[in-house]
Design a protein that fits this description.
Number of strands: 12
CATH architecture of the largest domain: Orthogonal Bundle
Subcellular location: Membrane
Radius of gyration: 52 Å
CATH class of the largest domain: Mainly Alpha
Protein name: Membrane fusion protein (Multidrug efflux system)
Pfam family, one: Beta-barrel_RND_2
Number of domains: 3
Membrane topology: Single-pass membrane protein
Strand order of the largest sheet: 1-8-11-10-9-12
GO biological process, one term: transmembrane transport
Helix content: 40-55%
Largest sheet: 6 strands, antiparallel, barrel
Number of helices: 4
Distance between the termini: 73 Å
CATH superfamily of the largest domain: Helix Hairpins
Strand content: 15-25%
Length: 371
């Protein structure tokens, strides 16, 4: 009996010890949970966080402006390049021939232009000659008119003398002949003047046409030179150059491959500027504004914290930029919280070595200090 009582007392003591440990553990959990909850609540008053964020950089697509077969490729995946470096070349024989054809067209157009200018000069000289001829005809007509007037006066005088039988018929006929010849000479000279005037008009018309032809020829020269410039430009495009400093990636071209103008071949990642785009819920934006400090942690480097600041807010939610934006007028509306892209700029407090670790598309956790 005494032994049973001792066992019962021992069991009661063990139970009391177990209950005491449980109470201590439970109290510790409650204190920890309360403290953590309080910390999160206090932090939520001055912080807005999201894990829906990615690192971004400018990515310049390499797009050829002319087509053809690739002659040589000078870069490999992940190579660093400088602005102006040759990435690859396109076979240039066809474009060189087009340049030579354009040069020949320029030479032909310039020759036609020179011929047109010579025609204009010749026509202008003919106009001057016609003017001189017309002026000479005017002087001849004036002299002929004077002689005709004199002949008419002589005829009248001889006619009176003949009527009075003071002269012979032969003398009278000579005076009449002189009058008729003088009048005829005036008529001939007037006809020559009219013919010269008509000829001058024809020459002036020809000069006008030649001047217009010269303008057309000059326009043809300009067009031929423009085509030559375009041919030379296309020839220069057969060497595809790097547009920015950066790192090439996703190269899928090889020698002998046929490419087309406007075809995106690979990318140059511009390492000069890096930023983060964080997609915050619309309910988190009330206290956020540009210039607020931001703490950034990238999943790839959890032990490195980057410093940034809010730069700008997107003018529309991310869903509005999707391929098929949601239509809330269909009658089956379900309200969902929208997210707005926020651009976060990395500050100068970050070291260049740390920023160099970042790659576009890396996931990040963002913590914005709103107070």
């Amino acid at each position: 009996m005494q032994q049973d009582m001792e066992n019962t007392t021992e069991n009661i003591a063990k139970k009391k010890g177990t209950n005491k440990k449980f109470i201590i553990i439970l109290s510790a959990l409650i204190l920890f949970g309360g403290g953590y909850g309080g910390y999160k609540y206090v932090q939520s008053l001055s912080h807005e966080t999201t894990d829906d964020a990615q690192v971004e950089k400018n990515m310049s697509p390499i797009i050829p402006r002319v087509g053809g077969y690739i002659a040589s490729v000078y870069v490999k995946d992940n190579d660093f390049v400088k602005k102006g470096d040759t990435l690859f070349t396109i076979e240039s024989q066809d474009y060189q021939i087009r340049v030579e054809e354009a040069e020949a067209a320029v030479a032909a157009a310039e020759s036609s232009f020179d011929v047109s200018k010579a025609d204009v000069s010749a026509s202008s000289a003919n106009v001057a000659i016609s003017d001189a001829t017309i002026q000479s005809n005017a002087g001849s007509i004036e002299a002929a008119v004077i002689r005709a007037n004199q002949a008419n006066n002589d005829y009248i005088r001889y006619q009176n003398l003949y009527n009075n039988q003071s002269i012979t018929k032969q003398q009278y006929e000579q005076a009449l002949t002189g009058k008729l010849e003088a009048d005829k000479q005036v008529e001939i000279l007037q006809q020559q003047r009219n013919a010269s005037a008509s000829q001058r008009h024809a020459i002036v018309s020809k000069t006008t046409v030649a001047s217009k032809q010269t303008s057309v020829a000059e326009a043809n020269v300009k067009r031929a030179k423009a085509q030559l410039d375009a041919a030379k430009l296309n020839l220069s495009y057969t060497a595809v150059l790097a547009s920015v400093d950066g790192q090439v990636s996703n190269i899928k071209v090889q020698q002998g491959q046929m490419i087309n103008p406007g075809q995106s071949l690979f990318y140059i990642v511009d390492n000069r500027e890096t930023w983060v785009v964080a997609n915050f819920k619309e309910t988190q934006l009330q206290k956020m504004k540009p210039g607020q400090k931001v703490g950034i942690k990238v999943s790839a480097y959890p032990n490195v914290e980057f410093e940034g600041e809010v730069n700008s807010f997107s003018p529309a939610t991310g869903s509005r930029f999707s391929l098929l934006p949601p239509d809330n007028a269909t009658g089956n509306f379900v309200k969902t919280v929208q997210r707005l892209p926020v651009k976060i700029k990395l500050t100068n407090e970050n070291t260049a070595e740390h920023i160099a670790l970042l790659r576009p598309g890396m996931n990040a956790d963002v913590d914005v200090l709103v107070r």
